[in-house]
Each structure stands twice: as structure tokens, then as C-alpha cells.
Amino acid sequence: MAADGFIRQQFVQRLYVEHHGWLNGWLRRHLQCSQRAADLAQDTFVRVLTREPQNLSAIREPRAYLHTIAKGLLINHWRRRQIEQAYLDALALQPEPLATSPEEQALIVETLLQIDAMLDRLPHKVRRAFLMSQLQGMTYAAIAAELEVSERMVKKYMAQAMLHCLMLLDDDA
Fold first, then answer.
1. Is the predicted pLDDT of residue 119 greater than 90, yes or no?
2. Residue 45 and residue 58: Cα distance in Å, rounded?
3. I need a labelling partner for 29 at 20 to 30 A (CA). Which of 14, 95, 99, 143 fits?
């Protein structure tokens, strides 16, 4: 077992030495920020370190493997920035007494990210029905017409979305 750990450590070390510069450069070109690129490159190698040992031995194209991990981290980074910016834009429209502390803002952004991840796991029509109902205030009949489904189907979509919301609340408890 100790020999496996040593072999694994050497593999990851070699992967890091041989490909870190390339990965960091790739991320820097996409982010236009050397510090954030360095952070995401490190996060990529942390992900590699946490993979199952048998998965590492199957790597035939190290750059493609690292690219796949880094691209997922990059997408998460952009999604988080988009959600944070939308929240900050909405917050800027609020009167001064309603402004929140930085701690409250961080908690709100984290909650918004959880909601976004939950909505992302919903099937497309379920997500659309839920958002039309909750954000646009549309009736089930209007949603049904928009999605070209029956009102009964919209009710099923809403029930499915609500169940996911409850599961999110249950996870926080």
C-alpha cells in the first residue's frame, strides 16, 4: 500500500513538473489574470491528487486530462462570477439602508450558487416552467402555452422543481 502511494506521488509530481507551465499559460490566456490562472492551475492539480489511484494509471493523454479538469473549473469560475455580478447589480439598485454587510453578501452569493446548481440539475422544461412561474409570475396556462405542453404537465414540472427545492433546504438542515 505504501509503495502505491509513493508511485502515485511520483506520477503526480511528474505530471505537475511536465505540464504545470503549459496549463498555467492556457488558463492565463482564458482568464487574462495571472493570479487567478495560478489558482485554477493549483486547483486542477489538487483535483488530480484527490482522484482514485486506478484512475491515474489510465491517463494516456495528460494534457487532455488536465485540460478537461481545468475547463470544468473555468466554467465554474465564470458561472460564479456571473451570479455574483448579477447579485451585486441587483444590490446596487437597493436603497442604502437595505445594503448588506460583506458577510451577508457572501452568504447570499453562496445560496444563489446552490440554487443555480440545483436548477442546472433539473430537466430543461422543468427549469423553464419553474423560472417562468417564480420569476415572471406567469400562470400555469401561460407556461403551458409557452412550452407547448398541457397545464397538467406544467403542474408535474412545478412539483418536480419544488421537490428539488425542498431537497436543497433539507441538505442545509
1. no
2. 16
3. 14
